[in-house]
Amino acid sequence: MEVISIGLLGLGTVGSGVVKIIENHQDKLMHQIGCPVEVKRVLVKDLNKERAVDIHPEKLTVNAEDIINDSEIDVIIEVMGGVEETRKHLLAALKNRKHVVTANKDLMAVYGSELLTVASENGCDLFYEASVAGGIPILRSLVDGLASDRITKMMGIVNGTTNFILTKMSKQGSAYEEVLKEAQELGYAESDPTSDVEGLDAARKMAILSTLGFSMKIDLDDVKVKGITQITEEDLQYGKQLGYTMKLIGIAHREGEKVDVSVQPTLLADSHPLAAVNDEYNAVYVYGEAVGETMFYGPGAGSLPTATAVVSDLVGVMKNMRLGVNGKSAVTPQYPKKLKEPSEINSKYFLRLHVKDEVGVFANITTIFSEHGVSFEKILQLPVKEKGTAEIVLVTHHASLQDYEDILVKLRDLHAVKELKSSYRVEGSSRV
Ligand SMILES: NC(=O)C1=CN([C@@H]2O[C@H](COP(=O)(O)OP(=O)(O)OC[C@H]3O[C@@H](n4cnc5c(N)ncnc54)[C@H](OP(=O)(O)O)[C@@H]3O)[C@@H](O)[C@H]2O)C=CC1
Ligand SMILES: N[C@@H](CC=O)C(=O)O
Ligand code: NA
Q1: What is the mean pLDDT of the segment spanning 283-295?
Q2: C-beta 159 within 6 A of ligand 2
Q3: At what angle do helices 84-95 and 105-121 cross, to 10 degrees?
Q4: How far apart are CA 287 and CA 140, in angstroms?
Q5: Which letter does DSSP use for residue 58 in this model?
Q6: pLDDT tens by residue, 320-343
Q7: C-alpha span between 211 and 214 (Å, rounded)
């Protein structure tokens, strides 16, 4: 092959990074691939927009067909985002026997198995390393590096925007809105950041990770999700006081044949390795029965880190081309999906509630917990400004989700309980 021609869908934060890496690392790519790589055409929405990279205006198009139907284009790199329209483009490209590299978790979490099937039917590669944890080569590690093991737990900070926000709120006392704006300006957030802050972006990534890690098709609807928008300054302060750090954590856990996958704000013991992962950085802890504990750390968002994963996938496609093995690497899930019941999911919980400052209230509350066999690791009662009200903050020992939810229902019904202010999952034991 004289030159590898790329069709790039999208020239925003990630697309510009891809162009820069292909230009700046041309020597290295030549060495690995054996021929030069050229970005031939680029799909954008607005032809007149100022671009972060120099690109010949004639390469730009607003018509996807100019790229998908160009017989000289070997590989499509999709970094435009979106789901339905993008799915159509990629299906058409695969049917035209073009390999695809994508950073699109929204698409892969929903249509991944369909696209992978069509790719393999057409002898094409479909790689999506950048879709989970940006620049960290986590998918490759699960599929190749840990291929011989049985993975039972994955736990991760997989959204850079929310980690950036929580870090700045906890460490600098910054206001939520202000830090979200900063994350958008730095190119970490999605075009609609609701999916970041409501946990959906992380849920998509956990669906992709658990499908690969557990070899079981986990759908987005199987992932329980709670985002960071309800976290208050008081929760962060209490967390600190009790020796915990608040993070948006995705957990995927397999016990026997059953799994549970969730994303929620979690108070991590300060000594927990994920508690030290700050700013836009991501980390994924993976436990395999044979290997034990492993941890993958790196930048989870941003132009060049994400583009590194995209271009590395491109190198993977080229190596497969040279070996004549494209379209052979995707493995269909081995196990049928079995999800745990709430009675089978165990965790510790932090609960903050406002109660009437009266004799016997504390005892009534502890009775409800003991009826469900749930005991406390920590418990504090503090006065608050509002007259006649006390605040109770507690951390439970391990309880089933079913028991904990039943306890919350009973507490809400208790006359002496004015309001359940907040509740979070807790991981690890703090030293405080
Ligand atoms: N930003 C990040 O850190 C990461 C992003 N991703 C994923 O990468 C993808 C791209 O993200 P990002 O670069 O941040 O997004 P941007 O919004 O910065 O860029 C999107 C690009 O796609 C073009 N585009 C969007 N919709 C259309 C359309 N309908 N037709 C033609 N062109 C279109 C835009 O054109 P125009 O410029 O003319 O508006 C723009 O160039 C997303 O799937 C995202 O989830 C994954 C990991 C990290
Ligand atoms: N918006 C995402 C970008 C990378 O996937 C994030 O913040 O992690
Ligand atoms: Na990655």
Answers
A1: 97
A2: yes
A3: 20
A4: 16
A5: G
A6: 999 999 999 888 899 999 999 999
A7: 6
Ligand number with the minimum distance to the CA of 158: 2
Predicted pLDDT at 431: 79
Query: Is 90 a residue whose pLDDT tops 80?
Result: yes
Whether 1 shows a pLDDT value over 70: the answer reads no
Instruction: Indicate if ligand 2 lies below 6 Å from the C-beta of 201.
Output: yes
Instruction: State the Cα–Cα distance between residues 224 and 262, nearest whole angstrom.
Output: 4
Expressed in angstroms and rounded, the spacing between residue 113 Cα and the centre of ligand 1 is 22
Does domain 342-427 match CATH 3.40.50.1400? Answer: no
Every domain of the chain and the residues it spans = 4-134+303-323, 138-299, 342-427
For the chain, the C-alpha Rg in angstroms (whole number) is 24
Q: Which residues pair with 348 in a beta bridge?
A: 426
Cα of 9 vs centre of ligand 1, distance in Å, is 8
What positions carry a catalytic annotation? 205
Instruction: Indicate the fold that domain 4-134+303-323 takes in CATH.
Output: Rossmann fold (3.40.50)
pLDDT at 424 over 80: yes
Q: What is the pLDDT of residue 331?
A: 84
Mean pLDDT in residue range 291-303: 96
For the cut 80, the answer to whether the pLDDT of residue 391 exceeds it is yes
Number of H helices, E strands in the chain: 14, 17
Q: Is the Cβ atom of 262 under 6 angstroms away from ligand 2?
A: no
Residues near ligand 3 ion, CB 5 Å cutoff: 129, 133, 136, 138, 309
Phi and psi at 137, nearest 5°, equal -80, 65
Which CATH architecture is the domain 138-299 placed in?
2-Layer Sandwich (3.30)
